[in-house]
Specification:
The protein is of the alpha/beta class. The protein has one domain. The strands form two sheets. The chain has a four-stranded antiparallel beta sheet, with no helix packed on it. About 25% of the residues lie in helices and about 15% in strands. A hairpin with a 5-residue loop joins β3 (about 115) and β4.
């Protein structure tokens, strides 16, 4: 593993991107590590590894996702497996979870978007981070540390100073009010995305 996991040479266009690996080696590192450095959930019967105390997940640099390959937007690889990871945490001795290649000190990780209800014009915060949705899921039933930090404090930096029960609701709804059917994300005059529910 590289000694400096947070600032490898990704090139000027990817300075704020998370993940292990370099831009010039992207094809090799992504394919190689994805196939040969397995995540715990890639092993058969991984739910039987109940004596583990620490889980390490390796997040590779990927030019299509600023949060790294584990957290590509919209139903990411890790998010899809997070329910299995949560079950393992609950049923094992796991106390620590580490995401290698994810820098929780980087401000861009906590950025949220403003969205506008297309019908009423009212704005709301849109919480679409796969990272924090995953952390909320895996840490909601049993106390563990995430990269040596209290997961609730990490979640509160993103969702606001709320209780875990309120954070779980926000992570599930992405902050979209129930009555909103169509909405737009992004500032006027910049790139905007339109969504339908």
């Amino acid at each position: 593993m590289p000694s400096d996991i947070y600032t490898p040479n990704k090139g000027k266009d990817y300075n704020d991107y998370h993940g292990i690996g370099n831009l010039k080696d992207l094809h090799f590192t992504y394919d190689h590590w994805k196939n040969y450095l397995l995540q715990i959930y890639d092993f058969p019967n991984f739910d039987k590894f109940i004596s583990l105390e620490t889980l390490n997940f390796y997040n590779f640099f990927y030019s299509e996702s600023y949060q790294g390959h584990l957290f590509e937007m919209d139903n990411s690889e890790f998010l899809k497996k997070s329910y299995l990871v949560k079950d393992l945490i609950i049923n094992s001795k796991v106390k620590n979870v580490n995401f290698v290649g994810l820098n929780f000190d980087h401000k861009n990780l906590y950025t949220t978007e403003k969205a506008v209800d297309d019908k009423t014009g009212k704005s709301f915060n849109y919480y679409d981070s796969e990272v924090f949705k995953s952390i909320a899921n895996i840490s909601s039933q049993k106390k563990v540390t995430i990269n040596e930090s209290d997961p609730l404090k990490l979640l509160q930096k993103y969702y606001g100073n709320l209780k875990m029960s309120e954070i779980l609701k926000l992570s599930s709804s992405k902050g979209i009010p129930k009555e909103v059917k169509n909405f737009t994300v992004g500032k006027e005059g910049s790139m905007q995305l339109k969504f339908k529910r």
